[in-house]
Amino acid sequence: MNKTDWPLYEVFIRSRHGLSHKHVGSVHAADETMAMENARELYTRRNEGTSIWVVASSAISASAPEQKDAMFTSPVEKIYRHPSFYQLPASVDKM
Amino acid sequence: MYAQMVETGVKKVKDRADMDANEAAFMLQIDAEDKIEPQSWMPEAYRKTLVRQISQHAHSEIIGMQPEGNWLTRAPTLKRKLQLAAKIQDECGHGLYLYSAAETLGTSRAQMLDDLHTGKAKYSSIFNYPTLSWADIGAVGWLVDGAAIVNQVMLQRTSYGPYARAMVRICKEESFHQRQGYELLLTMMQQGTQAQKDMVQDSINRLWWPSLMMFGPTDDESPNSAQSIAWKIKRKGNDEIRQQFIDQTIPQLEVLGCTVPDPDLKWNEATGHYDFGAIDWAEFFAVIKGNGPCNKQRLERKVASHEAGAWVRDAAIAYANKQANKQANKQSNANKVA
Fold it and tell me: Of the candidates A1, A28, A45, which has its C-beta nearest B114's C-beta?
C-alpha cells in the first residue's frame, strides 16, 4: 500500500462581506488545480465565500512558539498606542 | 461523536507534583484555557491520545456514510434524495476536517487510513448497525446526529486548537442533519399510513439503545476519562452527556407520538432528569470488538473502495509530476536561449 500523501495546501477564503481572505483549513491534492477544486468542494458548500486562495503548506513560514515573548511583549506594554489611553473631557470624548 | 473509549496510556491521572517544568507549564496553559497549538510543547501521552481520538472521530464520519448511502438510490422523492446526498457529503467533509486536524499532530493521512483498513483503529459502534428501512435514515439524523451534536458542542471547547476549530465548523453543519432527520420522521408520523408509522416506531426501537451507547461506557475507575478531562480534551463525563441527550430527546419523542423501548424511562421530579433503564454493555463491547451486525461489511466496503480508487490517485500524481517536469524543462530551455 502506498503510504505517501499528496502535498498539503492551506486554504483561505474571502467571505462576501469585504473582509480579507481568512484561513479555513487545509486539503491534500496532487497539484494546485486539484487543490483549488478540493477546497471548493470542502470549504464552500454553503455559500461561504467569493474567492479562494490555496497555498502549498511548505511555502508558509511561521513564527515559533518560543519566539512569542520576543515578538509580542513589547506592543503589550505600549498602551499609549491605543485611543483609550488618552483621557478627554466628557464633552469631546466621542472623538 | 464519535470517539468512544479513547485510550490515554496512563494508569492514573498524573499528579502535578510529579511533573517536570515543561509539563507543569503545559498544565498552566490548560488551566488558563489557552488553546494548545501544533507547535506548542505537549506531553507525548496528550499527543497520542489526541491522535487516537481525532482519527477515531474522522473514521466514524467516513464509515458513517455507508449506512446512509444504503438508501440514497431508494429515497422516496427527489427532494429527500438531494437532502440525503448533501448530508452524506457533509459527513465526508467532516472526516476530512478531522484528518487535517490530526495531521497537525505529526501523523500522516496515509497512516491513519492504513490503521483503519487493517482494523487497528476504531470507529463509533453505532455505524455497525444496519439501516433496514427508510425510517432509519430519519432516525439516524435525529438520534445519531443528535447524540453526536451533544458531544461535539462540548468538544468545541476542547483544549487542542485545530480540533476545537474543526468542531465549530462541524457543529454549524450538523444541525441541518438532525433537523432533516426529525422532519422526515414527523412527516411519516403525521401524513403516513399505519404501515409507515409502524416503520418509524420500529426504527426507534432498534436505534435507541445503540444511540445511548455512542457516549461510551459509564465513567468508572478507568483513568482514561478522568485524564482526558484533566487535559480538557473532554469537558464532560460520558454519563453527564448521555443524560443531557436523553433529557433533550424525550420531549421531541413525545411530539412525534412515539415511544422508546425502555420500560424504566420516566421523569424524575426530584433530580430534574429522566431516569432510564440499564444499558446492555455486553452488546456494546461485542460491537466494539468487531462482532456487531455490520462490522465486517463496513470495513470490507471501505477497503474495496480505497483499492478501487488507487489507479485514480496514481494517475493524478503522475499527471502532476509530468506537468511539473514540462514546466521545469521549459524553464531550463528558456535559460539556455538567454
Answer: A1
CB contact under 8 A, A65 and B40: yes
Report pLDDT digits (tens) over A4-43: 789 999 999 998 888 899 999 999 999 999 999 999 999 9
C-alpha cell at A85: 489611553
Task: Find the angle CA(B189)-CA(B87)-CA(B127) to the nearest 5 degrees.
Answer: 80
CA-wise closest residue to B123 among B310, B307, B301 = B301
- All residues of chain B having their beta carbon less than 8 Å from the beta carbon of residue A42 are 93, 96-97
In chain B, whose CA is at the least distance from the CA of A45? B90
* B266-268 vs B273-275, strand pairing mode: antiparallel
State whether residue B157 sits within 8 Å of chain A by CB: no
pLDDT in tens, B115-156: 999 999 999 999 999 999 999 999 999 999 999 999 999 999
Chain centroid offset of residue B91 CA:
9
ipTM of the complex: 0.86
- Chain B CB contacts of A2 under 8 Å are 110, 310, 313-314
